[in-house]
Amino acid sequence: MVMKRDYPGLVLLALSDMAILVALVMVFAYAPREATMGDVQRIFYFHVASAWVGFFAFFVTFVAGIGYLARRTRRWDIWALSSEEIGLTFITMAVLTGSLWARKAWGTFWTWEPRLTITAVQLLVYIAYGMLRTAIVEPERKARFAAVYGCVAFVTVPLSWFAIRWWRTIHPDIMAGGDMAVTPRMAHTLFVSLGAFTLLYFALLRQRMRLEWAADTLARLREQIEGDDR
Amino acid sequence: MTEMSLYLIIAYAVFWGLTFVLVLSMWVRQGRLEREIQALSALLEERSR
Questions:
Q1: Phi then psi for A106, rounded to 5 degrees?
Q2: Interval A92-112 mean pLDDT
Q3: At residue A3, does pLDDT exceed 80?
Q4: Average pLDDT for A69-90
Q5: What is the ipTM of this complex?
Q6: Burial letters for A77-91: b for 16+ Cβ neighbours within 10 Å, e otherwise?
Q7: What is the C-alpha to C-alpha distance for residues A36 and A144, in angstroms, rounded to an integer?
Q8: The pTM is what?
Q9: Which of A2, A170, A185, A194 has a Cα at 20 to 30 A from A212?
């Protein structure tokens, strides 16, 4: 049995790579230098895009969790776990790039204000998702527990989103404008970055799901061989 | 190099670094799984002859 080349997946990867390159060119050559923060503000485009992909990935895990609980099919579980892994990577990216930006904007890498505190909790909650999956051996039980956990963990996403509106916080709200004036060129660059990161998410998700299908194929072959040996 | 541009470079290096680690880990896992699938498929084919 030879695994087929995934040509649509490769095309998606190539497209997302090109989109990221376009976004990079816009970040450094098209977007203007921000008056107050200077060049360090250019972190903003990929920081916001990473956070967006993280939130979206956790939303997919939430929907796939509900799908699994309703249908009990492996496909939904694969969606959930693949998306969670990518979401965790992108939220980590958002935290690290955000802290570098904060060093210039707030004079510190980290402060325990509401948005950052909730993001730290969110990071730990989704690390625990992976630990939960590793701890349970029986596949059906693992998928069921992970689906419920993935749905509950999603609470951290709206909490993080609304934290800057509900509580007093120093984190800027790009929707409301705030301290940083977003010019049209900045907005174009941000939207291209968001689109490029979303494409990258789907390209990575497809590859991560293929990995899980391959693991299932391997498990079936092992069972077949063990059955023959008995 | 100013402190500001250093932060900017580190931030973009973090993005590339983490993306690279994620893609590399998937690639390594995929390669290992494909090798095992091929080995077991060959074993099954041999037994069926």
A1: -110, -10
A2: 92
A3: no
A4: 97
A5: 0.88
A6: bbbbbbbbbbbbbbb
A7: 50
A8: 0.91
A9: A194
Contact residues, chain A to chain B, C-beta under 8 Å: 1-3, 38-40, 42-43, 46-47, 50, 85-86, 89, 92-93, 96-97, 100-101, 103-104, 200, 204, 207-208, 210-211, 214-215, 217-218, 221-222, 224-225, 228
Q: Which residues pair with A38 in a beta bridge?
A: A34
| DSSP 3-state of A36 | coil
Q: Cα–Cα–Cα angle for A46, A178, B2, nearest 5°?
A: 50
B36 min Cα distance to partner chain A (Å): 7
B15-19, long-range: CB < 8 A, 24+ apart: B15/A46, B15/A50, B15/A93, B15/A97, B18/A89, B18/A92, B18/A93, B18/A96, B19/A89, B19/A93, B19/A200
Instruction: Say if CB B22 and CB A204 are below 8 A apart.
Output: yes
What is the pLDDT at residue A2? 52
* Yes or no, beta carbons of A221 and B37 under 8 Å apart: yes
Q: How confident is the model at residue A165 (pLDDT cuts 50, 70, 90)?
A: confident
Mean pLDDT across the stretch A53-58?
98
For A139, other C-beta atoms within 10 Å of its C-beta total: 12
Q: Cα dist. A149→A67, A116, A154, A227, B4 in Å?
A: 13, 22, 9, 34, 40
Please report the sign of the dihedral spanned by the C-alpha atoms of residue A53, residue B17, residue A151, residue A141.
Answer: positive
